Amino acid sequence: MGRHIPPAKLRTWRRQWYVFYHDWKFSPPRKRRISCKSRDAFDQSSRRQLLDRIREEEILLRAEAVRLGGTIAYDARLLKCVDQYLEDVGRRVKVRESNKQARAGLSPHTGRIVEDSMRYFVAWLNEAGYEALQTGQLGPHHLRAYFEHLASEPSMNGERRVIRSGATLNHHRRHLRACINWIADMRPKRFPDVDALRKPLKPQPVAPREDVACTPAELLKFYRMAVQREDPECPMEVTRKRRGRIENFKQCPPVVAATPVSRLFLVLALTGMRLSEALQLKWEHINFATGWVRIFSEKTGRPRTLQLLDAPEGVLCPRFLELLKRWKLQAGEREFVLPHGKLKAPLHPKTPWESTLRAAKIRRIGPQTLRRNWVSFCASIGIPAAVAALWAGHSAAVAEKHYRLQVMSRHQGTLEQAMGLDVVVEELIAGSVAQGAKA
Fold first, then answer.
1. Is 31 helix (H, G, I), strand (E, B) or coil?
2. 167 occurs within a structural domain
3. Average pLDDT in the 126-136 region?
4. Non-local CB neighbours of 429 within 8 Å, separated by 6+ positions
5. Which residues partner with 242 through β-bridges?
């Protein structure tokens, strides 16, 4: 039977009045003392009031400890709890990989995003001198200091140093909030007041982004530049600063990405897929007779069908479907739609994409931008928002609020004609026909 822990007592020690008590925030409870002088308790009445307050706090914390099984782990090391959370994330990723049809666990892409976001938090704790910070000591001021650090510290976006936007900070808040909630559910209890920690983790309002879709000229310019940079015999202009002087010269690209930027761009722009969905697209997922493309999403776990040919709501990309047939003949025994060289599967050519964007000298166009742009151009050819959202794998409300951009005019014909990419598709079909004739 455990030894009885006495309540707080008022005693003299080294000719000073102290209150000796047990701190139930730790397991096992730790002996503490408080100087009455430090609490401005100089006479007998004020010392007695201080003793009563400490005894009331002891009773409340002890009752909480008994309710949670007899212990409270407020002395747990925060970094260790974060490591346990990341271990759980890794386990959930393995569950999804072992059985994707069960829709359990997390996708590998989501797991990488969570680990990357938490890596910044762990690095900040070490740099700020909080390696030994305990969960009972974590307060809202720590979290606010962390987000202030993220807001002022430059980050890398490809090869560019940028300052994080409000949307990016909300991204980090969301993942840190998930970590704090996971730790708060652990037993014994880790946080004295988790509600206070949730306040600085609430998403903050951000400035609205430019709500205008890409013009056909911008899309065409990006594609032309991507094709030009993929030509190993075409020298490109390079500007660099060396020894205090700016040098301009021409240089051929040293390597070409295993997954061409131009081909990935066409798939994303004309289908509205997520980047991960386009990279995992296989020939067996395309029905060339009906024009149906079966898309399997790692994010939601729900498959959906995109109809490129003769959909009841509108015609999307019939000529692009013809181009896919040509690509399949050229692919041979390759399983995936996108080329990947000697790699096992296609990968996102992030650095070539960024360099193409800089060389084209247009506003930023990324995979997510092309996805939002696709929903917008679907609306421009008369496809209802609910149908476009269904094809994109979202609800109509989400598509209207977050994905649809402003398109300046109504377009007639197919989606590829509205985007101005029909010229590119026809050139590629004609080129494949000429290449087949020579063979």
1. strand
2. yes
3. 90
4. 319, 322, 323, 326
5. 245
Q: Which residues contact 289 (CB under 8 A, 6 or more apart)?
A: none
Q: Is the dihedral of CA 161, 165, 167, 168 positive or negative?
A: positive
Residue given tokens 């993220």 in the structure block: 150
Domain containing 40 equals: 9-67
Q: Is the pLDDT of residue 158 over 70?
A: no
Tell me which DSSP letter residue 283 carries.
Answer: G
As for how many domains the chain has, the answer is 3
Q: Cα(152)–Cα(17) distance, rounded to whole angstroms?
A: 47
- Which of 201, 228, 261 terminates a domain? The answer is 201
Pairing type for strands 16-23 and 30-35 reads antiparallel
Specify whether 173 is located in the same domain as 42.
Answer: no
Q: Do 248 and 389 sit in the same domain of this protein?
A: yes
Contact 81, 183 (CB under 8 A): yes
**Block residue for tokens 């808040």:** 173
Asked whether residue 166 falls in the same domain as residue 100, the answer is yes
Mean pLDDT of the chain: 82
pLDDT of residue 438: 47
Cα separation, 87 vs 150, in Å, equals 24
- Do 247 and 339 belong to one domain? yes
Q: pTM (2 decimals)?
A: 0.63
| β-strands 245-251, 286-287 pairing | unpaired
34 and 82 share one domain: no
Question: Which residues face 77 on adjacent strands?
Answer: 134
Collect all residues with Cβ–Cβ distance below 8 Å to 148 and sequence separation of at least 6: none
Q: Rounded CA gap, 146 and 197, in Å?
A: 13
Query: Is residue 186 domain-shared with residue 328, that is, in the same domain?
Result: no
What pLDDT score does 361 carry? 85
Asked if residue 109 is part of any domain, the answer here is yes
Supply the DSSP string of 48-101, one letter for each residue: HHHHHHHHHHHHHHHHHHHHTTS-B-TTSBHHHHHHHHHHHHHHHHHHHHH-GG
In a domain, 298, yes or no: yes
- Token readout for 43 is 């006479």
- With a pLDDT cut of 90, the percent of the chain lying above it is 22
Distance between the two ends of the chain, CA-based, in angstroms?
90
- Positive or negative CA dihedral for 23, 192, 80, 120? negative
53 & 84 share domain: no
- What is the rounded distance in angstroms from the CA atom of residue 273 to the CA atom of residue 403? 12
Whether 372 and 298 share a structural domain: yes
Domain assignment of residue 349, yes or no = yes
